Structures are given as C-alpha cells and as structure tokens.
C-alpha cells in the first residue's frame, strides 16, 4: 500500500506504477481529511452551541479551504514534476470511465447527505448547524468520489 508521502514523491514498486490521476485522487482524499477534519472537530467540540454563524466559523472555514488549496497546489506540482509525461497526457477512455463511475457513485451519497442535513431543520437545527451539516454533506460526497476513483484504479477500471 502506498503512503501519501510515497505518492507525493513518486515512489512506486516495480510491479505497479500508480497512474497520475490516481495519485491526485489519493492526494485529494488526504487533503480533504487534513483540511476539514480539524474544522469539523473544532465545530463539534464546542461547549456552547451558537444559534447563528459567528465570525470564528467563517475564519475556520476560510482556513480549511486555504489549507486544502495549498495542499493540493503544492502536492499536484510535486507529483506532476515527478513524471511530467504522465501529467501532461490527456485523460484516456479508462480515466474518463473511472471518473464517470465515481461521480455516479458519489452523487447519490451527496444527495442523501444534503437531504439529511436539510432534515435537521425538523429537529430544531439552527442556522449554524444547518450550514455545517450541508458542508459536511459536500465534504462526504467529495471524499466518496475520491475513494470511488481510487477503487476504480485499483480494480483496473
């Protein structure tokens, strides 16, 4: 199994060369976990439950998005520079099929999670809870897409 550091620096075994787009999926999954894991931990670990969004919520979200953007930018550059030819190659039919299947798998997860998030309104959720529940649904949907792409590459499409 490849670690994120091995993916970033391009370490690969002799029997398997990880495709560029699979590396990006692994990095996306790890980046989302690193950026939004602490965000949701800080939001859920509060002792007080705010009734509306606070400036600290906006700041936490801005930090999470900035961290994700930085991780993905730096990691993508490193991975692309480790194999320029693979990075510049257009996506082939297999890549497109894997991506299409991953989106088809992740979309119902996203949709169900958004409806569950909206359903929290019937249980007395306030503005802050609703926004974080919808954000959690989006993060879950994107992580599901990344995992589905990784599985698609691992099972040879």
Structural summary, described in words:
The protein contains 6 helices and no strands. By secondary structure, it is mainly α. The longest helix has 28 residues, at 55-82. The protein starts with a helix and ends with a helix. The mean pLDDT is 88.
Keywords:
single chain; 157 residues; mainly alpha; 76% helix
Q: pLDDT below 50 for ≥5 consecutive residues: which ranges?
A: none
Q: Helicity, in percent?
A: over 70%
Share of residues in strands: under 5%
- Give the count of helical stretches: 6
Rg over CA atoms: 18 Å
Instruction: List the helices and strands in order.
Output: HHHHHH
Structural class: mainly alpha
Largest sheet: none
Secondary structure elements and their pairing?
Blueprint: H1 4-9, H2 20-44, H3 55-82, H4 84-88, H5 93-119, H6 127-154
Helix pairs in contact: 2-3, 2-6, 5-6
């Amino acid at each position: 199994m490849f670690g994120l550091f091995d993916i970033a620096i391009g370490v690969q075994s002799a029997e398997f060369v990880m495709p560029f787009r699979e590396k990006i999926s692994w990095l996306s999954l790890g980046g989302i976990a690193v950026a939004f894991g602490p965000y949701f931990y800080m939001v859920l670990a509060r002792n007080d439950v705010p009734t509306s969004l606070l400036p600290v919520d906006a700041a936490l979200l801005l930090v999470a998005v900035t961290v994700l953007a930085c991780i993905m930018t730096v990691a993508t550059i490193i991975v692309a520079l480790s194999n320029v030819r693979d990075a510049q190659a257009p996506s082939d039919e297999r890549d497109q099929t894997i991506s299409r299947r991953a989106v088809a798998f992740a979309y119902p997860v996203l949709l169900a999670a958004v409806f569950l998030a909206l359903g929290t309104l019937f249980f007395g959720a306030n503005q802050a809870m609703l926004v974080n529940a919808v954000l959690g649904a989006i993060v879950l949907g994107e992580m599901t897409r990344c995992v589905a792409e990784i599985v698609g590459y691992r099972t040879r499409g």
